[in-house]
Amino acid sequence: MAPRLLVGAIPGHSQLTHELQRAGHTVRPIDVNEDPGAIAHVDLVLLEGRAGDIRAAAALLADYARPRQMFLHTALEEGPQLLDDVETAQAITMCAHNLFGDIWVTSAADEIGETVVGLLIAEIGGTSMRIDDRRRPTIAAAQELRALEMTVRDDALELLSSAIPDFDAVADAFLSAPAGRRQAKSPGELDRLLGALEEPGVRRLFVDLQRRRGEMEQDTDTELWVIEKYEGG
To answer: Which residues form the CGL2689-like C-terminal domain (predicted)?
Structure first.
């Protein structure tokens, strides 16, 4: 069995700290502003939140970090450089961000850190995928696109609620249901669907998504239909 760790959590409890506790580790919340020196008593310092907050916390902790002490942050935007201030104390610096489900993207300042973060993610039942930190902006953009899926689904929910009596009763089930399957549409069918959309923003979204789908599938008919709509047809 891997050694059990005392984890100092900044700013406090989260889903990850719950998973670490479930794996047998002990988690202690730490207030980095009130008592940064409390990290002297922990094996692993876990920093969660926005990149700027993590960098600021690392600066406050630098005087209390010790060699081989482990520091892990969960921001996606930047890699282990957020923890440069504690790395100067020869701490092990690592990053792990939950992409979806049990999939985590990870990186570290050195091979020891890469090994440790891989073991930690495996302990909580996750799959660790090592990344090149230079690709973080691309990964973050992909995550933003996934988040924007909900914008489309929210618009669809509003349309269904307006068209189907009592649809609000099943709204939560709709929002959590798998994505719908799309069937190919002729330009005439697309015209009829577009005509059913009254809100200008939803109409623009519909045309833009059809444009992208047409590009990806090399569907010339759809691309021509989109050009017509862009030109005011």
So the answer is: 133-229
